[in-house]
Design brief:
The chain is of the alpha+beta class. 27% of the residues lie in helices and 32% in strands. The protein contains seven helices and ten strands. A hairpin with a 2-residue loop joins strand 8 and strand 9.
Length: 241
């Protein structure tokens, strides 16, 4: 017989169902009445268990409807240069990338202006879909100058970060990068790839990475807004006591 309080036992039981995906994300949990009958406990016990799960950010409640499983959200700190793949690896989150397309091209006028490139320079264009815990999370479209990176083994980028691959093969050392964030609503193709509703907001990221003052990477990413949070710590340099 367990020495745990009944509400804690029920909490642990529901949590196992959530972690095993038997109760899927945004899925409606059984009603309080149903749980009372299923587990032979009082309504106050059920409410204590659900309150603890809500306190742990595992569930959320919509008044008049019921309690739902809260989606897991991944957090990215913006205090230093990062790659999505490396960030997930550090959090011990399983990941993989799926290559959607690859080609070499000479940029058109608008892309050449963005890259500040000679229109005779050839670029690799690599489009990948990044998964975390089997959730499609990010669509990445990357442009790399062929005169810096002669050949790209696209298959090698499915199991590791692009930066790790380029560093190992070509000695890439990014010294700085600029990145912009713009909220968007996904188009139909993005919705299909990310498995989301058109009503789910996303973030569009544009990154320009430099090595010795030269642009060596331009990536445009679409990131699920319901799955990824960006965090930055702000220091007040003017704060005086």
């Amino acid at each position: 017989m367990s020495n745990l309080p009944l509400y804690q036992e029920l909490h642990d039981h529901i949590l196992r169902y959530i972690n095993s995906h038997e109760y899927p994300e945004n899925g409606l949990l059984p009603s309080e009445r149903d749980m009372c009958q299923m587990y032979k406990v009082s309504r106050s016990t059920v409410r204590q268990a659900l309150a603890l799960l809500e306190e742990e950010n595992m569930v959320y409640t919509i008044h008049g409807i019921g309690t739902f499983v809260k989606p897991k959200v991944f957090e990215q700190n913006l205090s230093q240069f990062y790659s999505f793949t490396d960030a997930l690896k550090k959090m011990n989150i399983s990941f993989y990338n799926r290559v959607l397309s690859y080609e070499t091209l000479i940029p058109g006028r608008s892309l050449a202006l963005k890259l500040k490139a000679d229109r005779k320079v050839t670029y690799h264009k690599l489009v990948r879909l990044c998964f975390a815990r089997d959730y499609p999370l990010i669509i990445e479209t990357t442009y790399l100058p062929k005169n810096r990176f002669v050949h790209i083994d696209v298959n090698a980028t499915e199991s590791q970060s692009l930066y790790d691959y380029l560093s190992a093969k070509y000695g890439l050392k990014v010294d700085h990068a600029t990145e912009t964030f713009v909220p968007i609503l996904p188009d139909s193709e993005q919705c299909e790839l990310l498995k989301i509703s058109p009503r789910i907001p996303c973030l569009q990221l544009e990154r320009f990475s430099y090595e010795d003052g030269c642009l060596v990477e331009y990536t445009s990413s679409v990131v699920r807004g319901d799955k990824y949070v960006f965090k930055i710590e702000l220091n007040n340099q003017n704060n005086q006591k």
